[in-house]
Specification:
Structural class: alpha+beta
Order of helices and strands: HEEEEHEEEHEE
Number of strands: 9
Strand content: 25-35%
Distance between the termini: 13 Å
Largest sheet: 4 strands, antiparallel
């Protein structure tokens, strides 16, 4: 059993992103012909034939809005795939999503500033335990190495 929980994009945020993304663009859904897109709404890969959308998402900005943090220049936004229509969210699973490739575990302070990161073969409890051993780490983002895209967030248990 995993100690830490991968957090998908919240349903309330998804509802907003399906109207206008964090760059102000309207949703532009398409049918995924190939499958394999990492969906941040349910933390699994898409399958061929699903209606999905690529939206601009600012995870740290949205977290900071709820905590009062001021990430400043660390406020990033980037592309994420989501279902074009409401989905049921993640299913219970063993392990962490999108763990089939090298990932970066990026650490952030309560102010929303980057405290560092670690390249891992696959996200696991040890990587998160190491990150949270530093008491100044408030949350971590797991990101893809190849494009730097945000995959999901992990907070202290």
């Amino acid at each position: 059993m995993t100690t830490y929980r991968a957090r998908p994009v919240t349903p309330a945020t998804l509802k907003e992103l399906r109207t206008a993304d964090d760059s102000g663009r309207p949703l532009s859904p398409f049918t995924d012909a190939e499958g394999g897109a990492p969906l941040r709404c349910c933390l699994r890969r898409s399958v061929p034939g699903e209606r999905i959308a690529l939206v601009s998402y600012a995870p740290l900005r949205r977290w900071a809005a709820g905590t009062g943090a001021e990430p400043g220049a660390y406020d990033e936004q980037g592309p994420v795939f989501i279902h074009a229509d409401e989905c049921g969210g993640p299913e219970e699973r063993e392990g962490y999503p999108f763990a089939n490739d090298h990932r970066t575990v990026r650490r952030y302070s309560a102010d929303g500033h980057i405290l560092g990161g670690e390249l891992v073969e696959a996200p696991d409890d040890d990587a998160f335990r190491t990150a949270f051993d530093d008491p100044s780490v408030a949350l971590v983002h797991v990101r893809a190495v190849e494009y730097g895209c945000y995959l999901y967030e992990v907070r202290r248990p």
